[in-house]
Amino acid sequence: MRVVIAPDKFKGSLSAPEVASRLASGLRSGFAAKNPGEGFEATLIPVADGGEGTLDAAVGSGFTRRSATVTGPLGEPVTAEFAVRGGEAVIEMAAASGLAVLPGFGDGTAPNPATAQNATSQGTGELIRAALDLGCRHIILGVGGSANTDGGAGVLQGLGAVLLDADGQELPGGGAALARLDRIDFSNFDVRLEATEFVLASDVDNPLLGRTGAAAIFGPQKGATPDDVATLDAALARFVEVLAAEIGSEAQDAASAPGAGAAGGVGYIAIAALHAARRPGIDVVLEFTELEERLADADLVITGEGSLDEQSLLGKTPMGVARAAARTGTPVIAVCGRSTLSPEQLSESGFESVHALTDVEANVAKCIAEAGPLLEELGRHIGVRLTEISASTQDAARIDTKEHLNV
């Protein structure tokens, strides 16, 4: 029996590698209890949708974890990790510029209006430079969980650009300061970028400005008040105006591009200045993990995330894995903390069955706190069901898998 375990994280409980490991432990236990001596092989492939967890997925796929000390969201030094494989790098911007690395995030004092105005993406630019120093010329930029609303201006600063006011003074970091932007000095901008290919891994399709832009939609999640949203949106518009004067009309056009509003506008600078190709995050991750190729001889794939809901249907990890499984004819089941989808929605998504922690433990708070042991219990249950499968041939195993796991 060959099983591929390809989950996303259970946010607030377990990382994707932890989810995969717990499930594998339970599966082996359940399978061995009913089939002692029978063969069971689990391949663990943590995945993500381009946001938080993308770095773990890269490392699980053979990339090497590296680290650099960079500028945190409020100017403090932070140690941020990225991943490298040959000339390719995967950068998860949340590691350098995310809400989770804000001072005070853990004790509830951040984010707040001050952080919304002043948080910078400079550390993400510095991570890109660290990858360039290692010879990487193909960089995947996974965005999500950002603290900043600076249009990616900080990324430019991290790569050597200098943002100046009308008096020739360098601007501090953060979106609010962009209201005073007069010009951008690119004389020390990293020349290696010209020979570097960027991929923006993001499912966000918001533009940079306006009612559906970065400040209006995502600013409140980062501590912005309604007045802050208006201030930040106007400052971002000034940034676009000045950048267009420096590099041309493509900077103006990029502000309206789908995905420009991702990660507080880091999507905008990726498109406008780094000429990044925007792709759905799950597609990028499944490509570098080579999931589809590794499903070729699998009898079953198990995926999942913390909550299977309407948002999951918009291209989140479980749907991406289910599409890959459909292309290889591999049965797929899902595990989750909870599911709010109807049986019809789950069936249409391609899942043979869905197993939720809330099926085992009704207390949601306990599911979050004890997700690991509960996942092992679900794994044991699934493992027992797998013993009913006749694995005399791969095709027969798949037919029986569909029959026995349709619960």
Automatic annotation (TrEMBL):
Pfam families: Gly_kinase (PF02595). Keywords: Kinase, Transferase. InterPro entries: Glyc_kinase_flavodox-like_fold, Glycerate_kinase, Glycerate_kinase_RE-like, Glycerate_kinase_sf. GO terms for biological process: organic acid phosphorylation. GO terms for molecular function: glycerate kinase activity. SUPFAM superfamilies: Glycerate kinase I. Belongs to the glycerate kinase type-1 family. This is Glycerate kinase.
